[in-house]
């Protein structure tokens, strides 16, 4: 197998999360909103979960799972972020090399935490292996269109100043690819849908501060390492769209992925050609009955 492309600088991802940990409370409301929307999927199943893994929950997801009565272990690439769990159940772990034994959990939750992973299919395979048969995976990722306003403004501003542009906003997955990723990783009954959150900022500098507080600053391997021109961000912020009241929108398009670890008890599709009734006979019009008496 060919190695996965090195799109993201994993050392930079860890450093950004280390530096963000003391300030992550600034974006707690957004993180809670994302986590609540993801965990709402638990209410759609009658399964009772007893042991969960929280991947990169930034001190938000594990308490929500424990409030549901689920024994929870959390892990994070950043030791500082892992400590936000507040328990001795937190583990420092790379999502691309998870240290958990097969079948350790019946629920895995990764809320907005896997989008800086280079080998996402490989990480999903490891999460499937960490699940018991018929265990549930819940994942949310920022999808294509997230921060589109900021991406466009930065690109236009840098092109105006320098005649070119370097990548400053992470590439995001398309929704249509998400269910295929789960299927490729061996999950049964994969489903992917979209949830959109729109944030409004009176001062666009607050958006930049929130991204830093969440540990979401640029970690693309091919990013420009030089200090940008002092004019770049003011020019980009001036180019952001505005809505009623003069506020600037920042869109988060959250792809939600659910999949189950395979188990013999799960429903399976019939083999091609095994149907007993043809589709043509089902769709054929009913024959006309005898004419009724006048």
Which structural traits does this protein have?
single chain; 294 residues; alpha/beta; Rossmann fold; 7-stranded mixed beta sheet; 20% strand; globular
Strand and helix map with partners:
Layout: H1 10-20, H2 28-39, E1 51-55, H3 61-67, E2 71-76, H4 79-82, E3 90-92, E4 105-111, H5 120-130, E5 131-142, H6 148-162, H7 175-184, E6 188-201, H8 204-213, H9 232-238, E7 248-260, H10 279-283
Parallel strand pairs: 1-2, 1-4, 2-3, 4-5
Antiparallel strand pairs: 5-7, 6-7
Helix pairs in contact: 6-9
CATH class label: Alpha Beta
The parts where pLDDT drops under 50 for at least 5 residues are: none
Q: Could you tell me the mean pLDDT? A: 91
Summing up helix and strand content along with how strands pair, one would put the structural category as alpha/beta
Q: How would you characterize the largest beta sheet? A: 7 strands, mixed
Strand proportion = 15-25%
In whole angstroms, the N-to-C terminal distance is 77 Å
Architecture overview:
The chain is of the alpha/beta class and about 290 residues long. It has one domain: Vaccinia Virus protein VP39 (Rossmann fold, 3-Layer(aba) Sandwich), CATH 3.40.50.150. The chain is about 30% helix and about 20% strand. It has 10 helices and 7 strands. Helix 6 crosses helix 9. The longest helix has 15 residues. The model has no long low-confidence stretch (mean pLDDT about 90).
